Amino acid sequence: MPADAAQPVYTAPEPISAGGPEVVLTLGAGLAVKPEYFGSSDYGAGPSFGVRLNYLNFGPLNFGSLNGDPASGIGLRGSFRYVGERVAGDYPELDGLDDVDATVELGLGLGYRSRNFDAFADVRYGIGGHESLVGELGADYKIQPADRLTVSLGPRVLLGSDDYTSTYFGISAAEAAASDYTAYAADGGVVSAGVELGARYEINDVWGVQGAVTYDRFMGDAADSPIVEQGERDQYGLRIGLTRQITLDF
Questions:
Q1: Which residues are CB-contacts of 111 (< 8 A; sequence separation ≥ 6)?
Q2: Cα separation of 19 and 249, whole Å?
Q3: Residue 223 CB coordination number (10 Å)
Q4: Residues 206, 207, 212, 218: is their CA dihedral positive or negative?
Q5: For residue range 159-192, what is the model confidence (pLDDT) as tens digits?
Q6: How confident is the model at residue 109 (pLDDT cuts 50, 70, 90)?
Q7: What is the pLDDT of residues 49-100, one digit of tens each?
């Protein structure tokens, strides 16, 4: 799916270390290969980026872990996703449809983490191209085949509100009149279901390399959209990049 994966922020509490860092972040940047738009059968390459909050200490607020390895258990997490713009004029098959601006999705969720298993449930709100709610569920089974290397595999489910599915999969009467499509109302619900295979290698305590291969299949009204039917219901993705841990001591 043409979006950067949500970056988890686990918040399992641990004792405050007097005089220690107050914020520890992991920043990621790299390259992503993904469909040109939701439902496209053509692929393109573009930037991939993300941020993960490892540790936060502001007075009584003490979340996360200084060593980047949160304790097992349930905790609060942040959720982020970027969805690129869809310019109908760039694709002959979308001629007559409205453009959709780029969107930043921000939200929160609950996550469970242990040595060999993670799970999460997130809710995000879009700012930009779509201003609506989306939810994401996922889980990962993890193994450590070598020192500093973690490999994970697990399912993903994306849910969207009526406004979300209408933005990317619906066709208004005005769009139908200006295109070869018929009008289509897309209701919210389960948008896609799939799986993600990821890997992370820690070069040292500051730098790392991470990547993932994703597969998603549109479901429900998203799958029945004329936009998807003229394209491809199955969507694949690949991303790889560097990560760097940043410590901020105020």
A1: 8, 10, 74, 75, 76, 77, 118, 119, 120, 121
A2: 9
A3: 17
A4: positive
A5: 999 999 999 999 999 999 999 999 999 999 999 9
A6: confident
A7: 887 776 777 766 666 655 545 556 787 777 888 999 999 999 999 999 999 9
16 domain-assigned = no
Residue 51 lies in a domain: yes
Closest CA to 77 of 162, 6, 149, 21: 6
How many independent structural domains does the chain possess?
1
Higher pLDDT, 67 or 221: 221
> b/e for 93-131, b at 16 or more Cβ within 10 A?
bbeebeebeebebebebebbbeeeebbbbbebebeebbe
Q: How many angstroms separate the CA atoms of 47 and 52, rounded?
A: 17
The CATH number covering residue 35 comes to 2.40.160
Q: Which of 19, 10, 14 is nearest to 249 (CA)?
A: 19
